[in-house]
Fold this protein.
Amino acid sequence: MSASDMEYSIQEVSELLGIPIQKLRRWDVQGVLVALRTAGGHRRYAKELIDRLAASGLNATADKASQELATVKRALAEKRRIIQLLLESENRYRDLVETSHDLIWATDAQGRFTYLNTASNDIFGLAPKDLMGRCFFDFEAGAAHISNRRFLALLRKNGEVKSYATHVLTAGREDRWIGINARLTHDDNGEVLGIRGTARDITEQHLASRRIEHLALHDSLTDLPNRHSLQSRIEAALGESRVGALLFIDIDHFKYVNDNFGHRSGDQLIIGIGSVLRDVMRDCGGELHRLGGDEFAIHLPEALRKQASDTAESALDAIRHYRFPATEQRIISNLSVSVGIALYPFDGADVPSLFSNVDIAMYQAKELGRNRHVVFDQASDNLRSTHKRIHWAKRLRDALDEDRFCLFAQPVVRLRDQKAVHHEILVRLRDDSGGYILPSTFIELAESLSLVQEIDLLVVEKLLAFMRKHNQVGKKLRYFVNLSRVSISDERWIKRFMSLLKASATDPSQLVFEITETAAMTEVDVTMTFISRLKDMGCRFALDDFGAGFSSFYYLKRFEVDYLKIDGGFIRDLATDEGSRLFVRALNDVARGLNKQVVAEWVESPEVLKLLVEMGAQFGQGYLFRRPMPLEETLRLPATRMMRAKAS
């Protein structure tokens, strides 16, 4: 039998098996169905194999094999794609990790570094390779090991820690604060394999936070702990049922330095006093605080009366010996302070009570002559008076800050026709209920507390604003304004007062400033100088409550005043008291001779009005004509007779 009878050509196999020639060639290459080759390179298939395959249905088997081969190819292609993605992802991850500003790290179970990115240079000052086998504890600063032990305890307890701050020193001994995020890693049996996490340099944020905290608890001028810090210390001591002493220190006559040398010198004085008191604290072990303004405080934990008094005397003595250079040419050497002392919990079982009582003791030291200390005494006879002063000191300061002083006015009437021609300006304090407090209640206290100068200035400022707003400038109407003796004796106040008048563009002849006769006689030269300066500006002047001191007749011709306001006590009794009539008649005669005009106060009856007209008094004011009213309401007053206005 010839070879051709034992073999099939590729065309014959294609027909017998129903498989395209192209596919058979591919199978031959792939090894699925291998053909023999003739010398001429033609494919020949064994007849026996092909017949058997044809009989067993090779086409279906071949298709299945082809499909499986295609599936394998697709799987291999997908694996190659996934491997490529993984490689790209790993490269991206590596780029991100190595270029991150955050430290990315891993350790073994003992906490020794097994991996760090290049941020280790910024955190520790060392390259990753130099840190392998080392740990965070190798770089802890001072007592930071306590913090780091706490970190490990939290990590073991919770399995992770977030934003944990700790203090380290770099290889170059530079301070670093770092914030750590960490998580434990475990094997399949739950055993700890190591720790992974991140760390960030938070030095700037930490220092900024500490600075903010420091500013919140310290005075910006002296850098001493402030009132809030003191309150926290006292609250802690009281909460632990401890004893101690609290001293409040107020600089005597501090306003003199501020007014005469300027606020910058005042600040320097505060700094200087703070330095002196710091030295005192070194010897007594106390805590110095600045409360604000010209007040300091000393906290003496565990101290009782004797130690507190000794410390106060040491402070007083140190201030007495302090020489403050107010200017290059002027050194102030007579400085003193007033010190109040209270003991806790005996004089206050809570912070407000303790602070109030030590404040009272400090005010008592001032009332007793300053330059001394006073220990709070609940049984003191002066306690009620001091309570009142402290209450009004705060109330008046708040009223100034909250603009609660209001201007009222009472008409000054021309007696011959009862027409309102001028107004006296009166100040009232608006209370919390909307009512008004009369100046007789608070002016004397305001003078003793050195607050009356601000009240006087505020009244003048409000009046000038009213005149400009309602176009009262240039009219014949005049406004009488009371000034305190304390104000006109204060040269700095006078400068502010004069500057206010000059800047107001007000007709000075419309302003009549007045002080009481008693005040004028207390400091005659001061009064005469002030009157002269006002007259030079074009303003007018009046002596109020004239007649309270008969010695003033001697000085009357020396006071260049325009008006004399007769004390209301004489006017009220004019119809029933002959002595009052003699005095008022004589005063009118003297006033006419000196070319001064007379204003009668407290005119309350037609009988008194008639007598005043007969005596030649030109002006009067009182309830017979009109009660005091808010200044704005004077704009609605009719320009007619004021008689019978009392009924309104």
Summary: The domain at 218-380 is CATH 3.30.70.270 (Alpha-Beta Plaits).
